[in-house]
Amino acid sequence: DGYKSASAQTANVTVQHTSYHTFELEKETEPVTVYLKDTEGKKVTGGYVSITDPNGVTTTEWVGNTGSVTFEEKVAGTYTVKLVQNPNGYSNVNGTTGTVIVSTTDLAEVKNEHTFVLKAPSVTVTVYEDGTTNTVPGADVTLTKPNGTTVSGTTDATGKVVFTNVPTGTSTVEVTKVPTGYVLTGTEESVTVADEDVTEDL
To answer: Using a CB cutoff of 8 Å and minimum separation of 24, what contacts does 152-161 make?
Structure first.
């Protein structure tokens, strides 16, 4: 079990004399894939992950643009995967180690993979009436991330809107629409995100 023929092999054996033939076998292998995803299920790039085989041998790889690393040709057994270094600005949600049981069977429920779930800081924006401490529910706010992509939200009954998984760097937040009875002043502010959650008042 766990082996396969190295190539298609047959042998003819003559019964008149004692004869021997050696069949070459090699262990069956499967790849192990480790994924990095945020709490919204989106891929996360950067950081290092490692895999330790049943013999204690560890291999470490960088997580590239695919948000995953595949360790090829792993024989059947129990492996330990570890998030060695978090991507910048992310913290762990489901721990830094995991166990992967590699099987060379065709069982559908066997998955040679593990996913680390990560959380980036959040930015909480509160919109106020100009010159007062009164908050404004129902205002539309747009956050522009360091890479130029945008995400929008609407303030709740307390005048707040929360943007999750905001990458490190400088983002901008801007009120783009206000409810009836308010005047849009075009307020825009820069927000610097490091490793902690951030609050911003507009």
So the answer is: 152/176, 155/125, 155/126, 155/127, 158/126, 159/126, 159/127, 159/128, 159/135, 160/124, 160/125, 160/126, 160/127, 160/135, 161/124, 161/125, 161/127
